[in-house]
Amino acid sequence: MIILDFLQDILTEPAFLIGMISFVGLVAMKSKFHKVLTGTMGPIIGYLMLSAGAGVIVENLSPLADMIEHGFNITGVVPNNEAVVSVAQEILGVETMTILVVGLLFNLLIARFTRFKYVFLTGHHSFFMAALLSAVLGSLDMSGVEIILVGGFLLGAMSAILPALGQKQTLKVTEGEDLAMGHFSSLGYYFSGIIGKLVGKGSKSTEEIEVPEKYAFLRNTTISTALTMVIFYIFAALVAGPEFVSGLSEGKNYLIFAILAGLNFAVGVAIVYAGVRMILSDLIPAFQGIATKVIPNAVPAVDCAVFFTFAPTAVIIGFLMSFLGGIVGMLVLGAVGGVLIIPGMVPHFFTGATAGIYGNATGGRRGAMVGSFVNGLAISFLPALLLPVLGDLGFTNTTFGDTDFATIGIILGQIGNWIGHTGIYTIVGIVALILIIPSFMSDSELAINNPEWEE
């Protein structure tokens, strides 16, 4: 059990995973000791900076959500991945940890021997998916070696297939940088990109928004983020009222608290950007060693926040429009008598921002706005549909907040309930065919959906 706990801590900590990958790549390239040291430490420190910035963002989004819920008198379910996982750990802790380890091994084997050469490096999301798989498969009476092998295979397969699905869009986002999306809300991002292509013809990029000279300071991403969020926080504080906000601010003036929260949010975003730049400067060169020596042509699939620096303006637009979509989704659910899914600030910021980036890459400003709005609807309706499945497992009043978790959970749960283990093994067979068939379609050794793969 101690070994499992140790492995869980290693594998669920993306900083260590990225550091290990960089280390292996640099050693494979026979780099000098000082380059191995700096090339390993750089991505670790960069990811810790990214995590620290994300922590500042989450810390300041929490009171914003409280103010909005109180100000508008909203009660319901707030999707929260961490809450579901904490319950799953109490019920299926060993299964979750073992599926996580086996899933990582399957991901590496799939990347080595198939065209799906994507190595998933976002460890905490792998952990969340392992928890979802153990919960759903456990509810279908799978146990022991069966649940570990089936769950581990599905985790490893999804870790390779989902980054591949949207790789062409991702390359547009990164302007050719050899990165993939390693975040289990990817279906929402890719759909945003599709919507952007449909609605954004002729629309200029969010990053080309013309700013008059007297407002030139708005070109500074940190300043523009701070001003936007301060306005947002002040509005929420005014709606909630000084008496309620004083309980959150520990006696500090409610408007001063709102202003500081908005400014601290911008600080968190700035730290994330700095961490991302540090990760990319060391990880990409080191990963070439993996791609040439260990897993030929491997592509790193990284956290969604890594993509924020490619379109900083789309980040804020995406967050706001996704949140608006969440509000509309909540109202629709209320009107039809469904469970109210209260827009969670954390999923709407991170997934909404990324959906905005993908929508902008394919459809400019209109794509960013419409794509992220639809993402907001998706992370309202899908968690609501998943809630009954998780409720049956004892996870009442909590649900996952990201599109991939909800989609996979709903599919496995429904098919498993209809035709039992036969249905699950049918899914496993279909997934295996998806992984194998591309190997017979081309002699190329490049990753599938790399543009050169089709040539």
What descriptors fit this protein?
about 450 residues, transmembrane, 3 strands, membrane, 14 helices, transport, phosphotransferase system
Polypeptide structure, described:
With 455 residues, the protein is mainly alpha-helical. It has 14 helices and 3 strands. A 3-stranded parallel beta sheet has the order 1-3-2, sandwiched between helices. The protein starts with a helix and ends in a 19-residue tail after the last helix. The model has no long low-confidence stretch (mean pLDDT 85).
In percent terms, what proportion of residues is strand? under 5%
Secondary-structure-based class equals mainly alpha
Shape: globular
The number of strands is 3
User: What level of helicity do the residues show?
Assistant: over 70%
Largest sheet geometry = 3 strands, parallel
Instruction: List the total number of helices.
Output: 14
Sequence of secondary-structure elements: HHHHEHHHEHHHHEHHH
Strand order within the widest sheet? 1-3-2
**Oligomeric state of the chains present here:** single chain
What gap, in angstroms, lies between the N and C termini? 49 Å
- Radius of gyration from the alpha-carbon trace, in angstroms: 22 Å
Q: Low-confidence parts, pLDDT < 50 over ≥5 residues? A: none
Mean pLDDT: 85
Main location: membrane
Pfam families: EIIC-GAT
Subunit structure: Homodimer.
Membrane topology: Multi-pass membrane protein
Map the helices and strands.
Blueprint: H1 2-11, H2 14-28, H3 33-71, H4 81-113, E1 118-120, H5 123-139, H6 144-165, H7 167-173, E2 180-181, H8 186-199, H9 221-240, H10 242-249, H11 254-294, E3 299-302, H12 312-335, H13 345-392, H14 403-436
Membrane topology: Multi-pass membrane protein
Protein name: Ascorbate-specific PTS system EIIC component
Transmembrane segments: 6-29, 36-58, 91-111, 118-138, 144-165, 223-242, 254-276, 297-321, 327-346, 367-390, 422-441
